[in-house]
Amino acid sequence: MPELKGWKELPIGGLIVEPGNAKQYKTGTWRVLRPVYQPENCIHCMQCWLYCPDQAIVVEIVDGKPKMRGYNYYYCKGCGLCANVCPKSTDPKTKQPAPEEKRAIVMRPETDFAEE
Amino acid sequence: MPAKQALTGAEAIAYAMKQINPDVVAAYPITPQTPVVEYFAKYVADGVVDTEMIPVESEHSAMSACVGAAAAGARAFTATAAVGLALMHEIVYIAASLRLPIVMAVANRALSGPINIHCDHSDAMAERDSGWIQLWAENVQEAYDFTVMAYRIGEHPDVRLPVMINFDGFIISHGVEVLETLDDDVVKSFVGKPIKMYSLLDTEHPVTYGPLDLYDYYFEHKRQQIEAMKHVPKVFKQVAEEFEKISGRKYDLVEEYMTDDAEYIMIALGSTAGTIKHTIKELRAEGKKVGLVKPWVFRPFPKFELQRILNGRKGVIVLDRSASFGAEAPLYEAVKSALYEVAVRPQLGSYVYGLGGRDITPAHIRQAFEDAFKGYLIADEERYLGLRE
């Protein structure tokens, strides 16, 4: 969130005079659950990037191919879609939820990070 | 050359708007406002103005169309009365909040119910906190003059607020009076080109109107509106001074009539001020030191002027043409509040009159003054003129 301005600094009438300023809005403050990236399990399929309703997945192009590089927590609202669509969240044999240590994305309560 | 004409208030306002030649007029008919836009529609039909006239399906739409037009950078005008103004209510607030200098003439009429088409001030008083500048005309001349002045006040960069011109329904709107009108080119150069700010049609500088404004910023935007109102007295006086140069007619936040040595002062809005002036002349002939203060501007409320004028007088009588059920009448409440800090508070009396078009006569006004002469004004007692007990 940009610093809140006083009434003398704001344009009148609630007008937005700077197009595209929604990017300054730190929607990450809405997050209750935080997706935690475990790169050792990631297969870089980009399903998370495809489904993310914001632009919270950080991607790096290496040798012409996209690589998942974690999260932009400034925007990530913690909806959990990425973890839901991630193929590593499911055990391929049992079709049951995979154990946490084998997943690429684990959803953790934001309270676990309260000290950050 | 200024010309003498015999016009109704409605015709006079339409005539001023013809001279101003606004970009957009959106309106819906309602008694007693209808002739304003009816006369104006004739100017449109005759091709003497370039205005886009939008006959809408309701007053809510009329004000909405004006909001859209003004946001686009157009000069927008509408006129209404009573329940029409009430139906607009939501957008009346939005027009002020979006800081759009729309001009609206209100032919003041009693709010329903039971349904009534005649004059009182309940319609405008219901909008007193909407953030509009409220000007109040006593007669056809003032209704015309305020229409000529309105855009200059509302469009000023320090103000950017909509302006409501109140003129008593039927009494002013339909009563024919002789007034002095200005030449078209004089009005044209006085009003000038619209001062545009944040126009939607200025695509080089894109702007968003009306985004969601929650607890993090709404309060700051309201504070800006409060500040804008504080700038109105200065701007009004500047515009009035310039207007005096072209018309010879002098306006201020309030009109003072025979107040210099007055011991007793009556305060009223609108056409009743004329009846009061007549009665004051009679009472002066009898040796009574009486005067009138008529707010030309009711929002922002001319508190400091009233403090200066009323301090130390023997008695102040406030006439209200609307009631506030369960509280003091709106003009009285504001005057009483203004007098809290004056050094020598006068006796104060509240008189409600004229609801639903009930006539007010010199005898009623004299009756209120007589109470004051006897020292029989009670600040916490509301009295009624012309009411059958």
From TrEMBL, chain A:
<dbReference type="InterPro" id="IPR011898">
    <property type="entry name" value="PorD_KorD"/>
</dbReference>
<keyword id="KW-0677">Repeat</keyword>
<dbReference type="GO" id="GO:0046872">
    <property type="term" value="F:metal ion binding"/>
</dbReference>
<dbReference type="Pfam" id="PF12838">
    <property type="entry name" value="Fer4_7"/>
</dbReference>
<feature type="domain" description="4Fe-4S ferredoxin-type">
    <location>
        <begin position="33"/>
        <end position="62"/>
    </location>
</feature>
<dbReference type="InterPro" id="IPR017900">
    <property type="entry name" value="4Fe4S_Fe_S_CS"/>
</dbReference>
<keyword id="KW-0479">Metal-binding</keyword>
<protein>
    <submittedName>
        <fullName>4Fe-4S dicluster domain-containing protein</fullName>
    </submittedName>
</protein>
<keyword id="KW-0408">Iron</keyword>
<dbReference type="InterPro" id="IPR017896">
    <property type="entry name" value="4Fe4S_Fe-S-bd"/>
</dbReference>
<keyword id="KW-0411">Iron-sulfur</keyword>
<feature type="compositionally biased region" description="Basic and acidic residues">
    <location>
        <begin position="90"/>
        <end position="104"/>
    </location>
</feature>
<dbReference type="GO" id="GO:0051539">
    <property type="term" value="F:4 iron, 4 sulfur cluster binding"/>
</dbReference>
<keyword id="KW-0004">4Fe-4S</keyword>
<dbReference type="GO" id="GO:0016625">
    <property type="term" value="F:oxidoreductase activity, acting on the aldehyde or oxo group of donors, iron-sulfur protein as acceptor"/>
</dbReference>
<feature type="region of interest" description="Disordered">
    <location>
        <begin position="89"/>
        <end position="116"/>
    </location>
</feature>
<feature type="domain" description="4Fe-4S ferredoxin-type">
    <location>
        <begin position="66"/>
        <end position="96"/>
    </location>
</feature>
Automatic annotation (TrEMBL), chain B:
<dbReference type="InterPro" id="IPR053390">
    <property type="entry name" value="Pyruvate_synthase_PorA"/>
</dbReference>
<feature type="domain" description="Pyruvate flavodoxin/ferredoxin oxidoreductase pyrimidine binding">
    <location>
        <begin position="16"/>
        <end position="240"/>
    </location>
</feature>
<dbReference type="InterPro" id="IPR002880">
    <property type="entry name" value="Pyrv_Fd/Flavodoxin_OxRdtase_N"/>
</dbReference>
<protein>
    <recommendedName>
        <fullName>Pyruvate synthase subunit PorA</fullName>
        <ecNumber>1.2.7.1</ecNumber>
    </recommendedName>
</protein>
<dbReference type="Pfam" id="PF01855">
    <property type="entry name" value="POR_N"/>
</dbReference>
<dbReference type="GO" id="GO:0006979">
    <property type="term" value="P:response to oxidative stress"/>
</dbReference>
<dbReference type="GO" id="GO:0019164">
    <property type="term" value="F:pyruvate synthase activity"/>
</dbReference>
<comment type="subunit">
    <text>Heterotetramer of one alpha, one beta, one delta and one gamma chain.</text>
</comment>
<feature type="domain" description="Pyruvate:ferredoxin oxidoreductase core">
    <location>
        <begin position="262"/>
        <end position="365"/>
    </location>
</feature>
<keyword id="KW-0670">Pyruvate</keyword>
<keyword id="KW-0560">Oxidoreductase</keyword>
<dbReference type="InterPro" id="IPR050722">
    <property type="entry name" value="Pyruvate:ferred/Flavod_OxRd"/>
</dbReference>
<dbReference type="InterPro" id="IPR009014">
    <property type="entry name" value="Transketo_C/PFOR_II"/>
</dbReference>
<dbReference type="InterPro" id="IPR029061">
    <property type="entry name" value="THDP-binding"/>
</dbReference>
<dbReference type="Pfam" id="PF17147">
    <property type="entry name" value="PFOR_II"/>
</dbReference>
<dbReference type="InterPro" id="IPR033412">
    <property type="entry name" value="PFOR_II"/>
</dbReference>
